[in-house]
Amino acid sequence: MNILEVKDLCKTYIVNKRQNNVLKNVNFMIDEGEMVAVMGPSGSGKSTLLYAVSGMDDLTAGEVNFCGKNIAGMSERELADLRLDEMGFIFQQMYMLKNLTILDNIILPATQSKKQREPRRETARRGQDFMRRLGIIDIADNDINEVSGGQLQRACICRSMMNNPKMIFADEPTGALNRTYSDEVMEELVKLNSEGTTIMLVTHDVKVAAKCTRVMYIVDGNIKGEYDLSGCSTQIRERERALNNWLLELGW
Ligand SMILES: Nc1ncnc2c1ncn2[C@@H]1O[C@H](COP(=O)(O)OP(=O)(O)OP(=O)(O)O)[C@@H](O)[C@H]1O
């Protein structure tokens, strides 16, 4: 069953009276349980696409059906509730609040949600469980400037999971990390995906994309090709090689 269906999506920015047609009639679907990477040259519209289909930014034209509901017809309030309750977000810049501990940052979405009606102690316990799972429980009471980049990004994954989202949207989740931290973060995302969370992520990194089930390649606001990795070898090196060859054919 599809969780996301995008029909003729267009996004135009107007800057200094000049029109920039960034997304041009984009069509695709994502099924429940998929992990889809969006790749493409710088400026091709990857982040714009992610923000448009996740209701973070408005559409110029087209339809985005999330779990069968067109988000283009939703009010700001409805969209905010949808993003909070049904979607998880992970960004390269992480966006954690400076005056809160790591644990308080993680549980913040649950304290704002109407979906999870539970005592704060229970919310904190769930947050701690996620932290334990991701191997960062020892930094629960730290400030955000007292942890490593990899730990902070894993904390962002915990935060994105607090409201049990149907889908996670990630914009360059490993973009600011070294290879070791990047591998750790990807391991966790792959694990969440294998447990049923659908994921769409933007990346420039072939090693990251090779861990996904499908790759969409965007050029100049259009999907130029899609590569299905679900039937590919489980050997990561082979997946990377196959994906690399395909990307080179597309002019990567
Ligand atoms: N908020 C905005 N206002 C105006 N123009 C924007 C805005 N966001 C993006 N753009 C423009 O849209 C185009 C696509 O940008 P976008 O960030 O989606 O590309 P990208 O493929 O994610 O690039 P990169 O890989 O460099 O992050 C660019 O020309 C950019 O300048």
CATH superfamily: P-loop containing nucleotide triphosphate hydrolases
Low-confidence stretches are: none
Total beta strands: 10
Which hetero ligands occur in this complex?
A: adenosine-5'-triphosphate
**Amino-to-carboxy terminus distance:** 31 Å
Mean pLDDT level? 93
Task: Give a short summary of the structure.
The chain has 252 residues and is an alpha/beta fold. It has helices spanning 46-53, 76-86, 102-112, 120-133, 149-161, 179-194, 206-209, 236-249; strands spanning 2-15, 18-31, 35-39, 61-66, 69-70, 87-91, 167-171, 198-202, 214-219, 222-228.
Describe how the helices and strands are arranged.
Blueprint: E1 2-15, E2 18-31, E3 35-39, H1 46-53, E4 61-66, E5 69-70, H2 76-86, E6 87-91, H3 102-112, H4 120-133, H5 149-161, E7 167-171, H6 179-194, E8 198-202, H7 206-209, E9 214-219, E10 222-228, H8 236-249
Parallel strand pairs: 3-8, 3-9, 6-7, 7-8
Antiparallel strand pairs: 1-2, 1-4, 4-5, 9-10
Helix pairs in contact: 3-4, 3-5, 5-6
This protein binds adenosine-5'-triphosphate.
